[in-house]
Design a protein that fits this description.
The complex is a heterotrimer of chains A (127), B (310) and C (135).
Chain A lengths: L9 E5 L3 H13 L4 E5 L2 H11 L3 E5 L1 E2 L2 E2 H11 L6 E6 L4 H9 L4 E4 L5 H10 L1
Parallel strand pairs in A: 1-2, 1-3, 3-6, 6-7
Antiparallel strand pairs in A: 4-5
Chain B lengths: L5 H100 L8 H31 L7 E5 H18 L3 E6 L5 E5 H17 L5 E8 L3 E8 L33 H11 L4 E6 L3 E9 L3 H6 L1
Parallel strand pairs in B: 2-4
Antiparallel strand pairs in B: 1-3, 4-5, 5-7, 6-7
Chain C lengths: L3 E5 L3 H13 L3 E5 L2 H11 L3 E5 L7 H10 L8 E5 L4 H10 L3 E4 L4 H11 L16
The chains are: A alpha/beta (127), B alpha+beta (310), C alpha/beta (135).
Chain lengths: 127, 310, 135
């Protein structure tokens, strides 16, 4: 159910870049999403999915010793095919990656921008 | 009526069975083709989705680039405004100081004693120096900010060098030095900003005059196949090996400065270097202590293609 | 009869100093420190030459100049710009706009007087007033 300004929706962000993490957190909380958790690598991320059961996961394509697609696939295999919602974000847009994202079960794929506008739009559509 | 014999019926059944098998076979093929088509359609949908996403992302990135571009332009304007304002603010009080002292020295406000003249002259000398320093600093900041506009055109370096040399003849004569000209050809066409190159010649000749006690200063211009090479050499104090690396640095002072006629701003050579670099040329120095120094620089040649290139 | 020069600059010190220098060279001087007053003075005193600070923030030097050039009564009076930005650009700008010449801050008194004499069509060989040593 799509909540009003994200009330009660939990979002997990998995990104190994601290600065990017900060930026996404900032824009998400400004947009009204107050329950935000983060992880800096794949393993930590998967653990947090288990512990926190977020409604939405935002995955970076590049992660230390792993990548967003693998994590996405793992999550889809372990949990529901439709929940949690997954968005894969990247600093370098690529059409092949977009297809890969869809194939590994992500719900959306968008570019990292300094104002997070595409990400926020995608989030709004999903939760 | 015995229409068909038993054999004929069996034959017909066989044929029918074969036909049925054929049809079933076709049906199978049809079904798998349908599945293939469905798969391909799904693939296409995903690819289309992927391209649409990429397109979306590119649009966002364009918007970002546009925003950043506008921010850079604003910053650029601020830099220019700063240089302009600083320029104005520094030059106005300098004007007042220089003119006030000049007027007193010119005895417009009454006669002055020799002693008063002496001290006021010292004051004026240093304010003049300050003024030149301000000019040099503003030039450097303009160059740094990329605001130093070069108006390149076809210039004959030989006649340019001749003109600058003529300006220095009186000064050289007054201090007992010979100013030689050595032009290897009648003309040497380069593609340069005229005023900047005049600046370089002026700075180098002026330096040479300052640091040479006796002998001569030679201005050499060579029209080479790939560039116009110029050299200002002197029989002056020279630069030591350990000081060489600092020659083009800002505010660097070195060597024996005893009895040097005029204090410089410390920025002249740095500005020369930047000007030559802006022209994609090279500048360097060669020297022997107490024997003399050579400052050599290259300028781009003028060719018909030059203008089209830029 | 001595020629009359109007000097316009918003800095009082510079105004005073230029006026003194010009008077010492036997010119009549009128001064103005803002654009509006300057234009008034042009009509009242009908100067033979105007020395104008074009970067005057208050009263717009450029505005004054344009105003003068657009009016048949005043367009022929020669104008020398005072500017803090010596550049080749300024040189061409000056000619383009119809100014007589320009002098940069800080200026050299000899240069100023030479340009004034030239703008007034006088003999350039005159020595500086009082024959004193220039700084």
């Amino acid at each position: 159910m799509k909540g009003v300004s994200g009330m009660g929706k939990k979002i997990l962000i998995i990104d190994d870049n601290e600065v990017d993490l900060l930026i996404v957190k900032r824009y998400l909380s400004r947009a009204g999403y107050n329950e935000i958790i983060s992880a800096g690598n794949a393993d930590e991320g998967i653990k947090k999915v288990e512990q926190e059961r977020p409604d939405l996961i935002i995955l970076d394509t590049l992660l230390l010793s792993s990548n967003g697609f693998e994590v996405c696939q793992l999550i889809r295999e372990k949990y529901n095919k439709t929940n949690p919602k997954i968005i894969i974000i990247t600093g370098s847009i690529d059409a092949v990656d977009a297809v890969k994202a869809r194939k590994t079960g992500a719900d959306d794929y968008c570019a990292k921008t300094s104002d997070c506008v595409p990400l926020l739009e995608a989030v709004k559509k999903l939760i | 009526m015995e229409d068909k014999t038993k054999e004929e019926l069996i034959e017909e059944m066989r044929v029918l069975k074969t036909r049925i098998a054929d049809i079933q076979d076709l049906e199978c093929k049809y079904k798998s083709a349908e599945i293939e088509l469905k798969k391909a359609k799904e693939e296409l949908e995903v690819e289309t989705w992927g391209l649409a996403k990429t397109n979306e992302a590119i649009k966002f990135i364009y918007k970002e680039l546009d925003k950043k571009n506008k921010e850079l332009q604003t910053l650029d304007k601020l830099k220019t405004n700063f240089i302009s304002t600083a320029s104005h603010e520094l030059r106005t009080p300098l004007t007042t100081i220089i003119e006030s002292i000049s007027q007193v020295l010119d005895e417009i406000h009454g006669k002055i004693t020799a002693e008063q003249r002496e001290f006021l002259s010292i004051c004026l000398e240093d304010v003049d120096r300050l003024s030149r320093l301000v000019n040099d600093l503003l030039d450097i900041s303009k160059i740094e900010a990329g605001r130093f506009k070069l108006t390149k055109q076809q210039v004959d370096i030989v006649s340019l060098a001749k003109m600058v040399s003529v300006l220095f003849h009186p000064k050289a004569k007054s201090i007992g030095l010979e100013l030689r000209e050595n032009f290897c050809s009648q003309t040497a066409m380069a593609y340069v900003d005229k005023d900047s190159v005049i600046r370089v010649f002026t700075n180098l000749i002026s330096n040479a005059l300052k640091f040479t006690d006796k002998g001569y200063i030679e201005i050499l211009v060579m029209d080479k196949p790939t560039c116009v090479e110029c050299c200002i050499s002197d029989t002056g104090r020279g630069i030591s090996e350990e000081d060489m690396p600092r020659v083009f640095g800002e505010f660097e002072e070195f060597g024996n400065r005893e009895g040097v006629r005029e204090k410089g701003t410390g920025l002249g050579l740095s500005i020369c270097k930047r000007i030559i670099e802006l022209h994609q040329g090279e500048i360097w120095a060669e020297s022997t202590l107490n024997k003399g120094t050579k400052f050599i620089f290259t300028l781009p040649k003028y060719t018909e293609n030059k203008i089209q290139e830029e | 009869m001595p020629k009359k020069i109007l000097v316009v600059d918003d800095d009082f010190n510079i105004l005073k100093l230029i006026a003194i220098r010009l008077k010492a060279n036997n010119y009549d001087v009128v001064t103005a420190s803002d654009g509006l007053y300057a234009i008034k003075k042009v009509y009242e005193d009908k100067p033979d030459l105007i020395i104008l600070d074009i970067e005057m923030p208050v009263g717009g030097g450029m505005g004054v100049f344009k105003n003068l050039k657009m009016n048949t009564e005043t367009m022929l009076i020669p104008v020398i710009f005072i500017t803090a930005y010596p550049s080749e650009e300024m040189q061409s700008k000056v000619l383009e706009m119809g100014a007589e010449d320009f002098i940069t801050k800080p200026f050299n008194a000899d240069e100023l007087m030479a340009k004034v004499r030239k703008a007034l069509g006088e003999n350039i060989e005159k020595k500086d007033a009082n024959g004193g040593q220039s700084g």
